Amino acid sequence: MGTMATVGISWWVSVLILLAYSTCGGCPLTWTGFSSEAFTGLWEFLKLSASSGVMLCLENWYYQILVIMTGNLQNPRIAVDSLSICMTINGWEMMIPLAFFAGTGVRVANELGAGNGKGARFATIVSVTQSLIIGLFLWVIIMLFHNQIVWIFSSSDAVLTAVNRLTILLAFTVLLNSVQPVLSGVAVGSGWQSYVAYINLGCYYCLGVPFGFLMGWVFKFGVLGIWAGMMFGGTAVQTMILIFITTRCDWENEAQIAVARVNKWSKSID
User: Fold this and answer.
1) Longest dimension (CA), the chain
2) Which residues cross the membrane (predicted)?
3) Is 265 a residue whose pLDDT tops 70?
4) What's the pLDDT tens digit per position in 84-143?
């Protein structure tokens, strides 16, 4: 209870600080006070926000389902302990791709809004490449020093053994997550949120969860099977689809669409 309250308070403190910064002079060129013009195009903005929310929620809930499924195995204590350690390490690593997610989304949106399709494509390539290089470095670190890393969390021999069995999956999850969030950032910057939400729904919940159940319970691979099934059946497929969409994208056409949208909203405000 105390831990959850601490997390909740820290999030609200962050929200209040950002609100104060935005409205009290931190962004003088973008915030000039309250205006009725803020409600112009509100419905389109709400639809875009809802699509983004659904897209991100489907991704975040997916890994929570992994923990829930593991908790329903026979003798789940060691399995949940080992998986929680792996998810914590993965969560630490995810901060880097999530930073690329935010930065790439903003940069791609700015380039498209300026009519620069080549710039958006170049920003995508640079971001994915940089994040992938970092992911490869972390993959090597986990493969070489997983025993030392686990000692941060537990000294139990049973837990250490269980985590060692999951190390290869953790390493490849980290590598996969170095690409997937960046591509999601490209989707956000390009306005593809609704498409990605459907992709997430199909890959994660129509493929990944059933495949994880099949590997974990039917074939008796336990937590290893659940995680592998959900990763290769869901996350990997979703990443491949995003790679295909991104590489096949007509960036100049996307730039024209973005410019038309900006002009439409600018005229409606004027």
Assistant:
1) 68
2) 78-102, 122-145, 166-189, 195-219, 226-245
3) no
4) 999 999 999 999 999 999 999 999 999 999 999 999 999 999 999 999 999 999 999 999
Would you say 100 and 181 are in contact if contact means Cβ atoms under 8 Å apart?
Answer: yes
Q: With CA atoms as reference, report the closest residue to 247 among 156, 183, 176.
A: 183
Calculate ∠ Cα 70-72-77, nearest 5°.
70
The 8 Å CB, 24+ separation contacts for 106-110 are 106/189, 107/189, 108/185, 108/186, 108/189, 108/190, 109/188, 109/189, 109/190, 109/258
111: Cβ–Cβ under 8 A, 6 or more apart, which residues?
117, 119, 120, 123, 255
* Joined tokens for residue 246: 């991104």
Instruction: Yes or no: say if 242 and 183 are a contact pair by the CB < 8 Å rule.
Output: yes
Q: What three-state secondary structure class fits 238?
A: helix
Q: Per the structure block, which two tokens stand in for 97?
A: 């791709």
Residue 270 banded pLDDT, cuts 50, 70, 90: low
The length of the chain is 270
Q: DSSP readout, 49-103?
A: HHHHHHHHHHHHHHHHHHHHHHHTSSSHHHHHHHHHHHHHHHHHHHHHHHHHHHH
Structure tokens at 115: 């009519």
What's the rounded Cα separation, in Å, for the pair 35 and 151?
Answer: 55
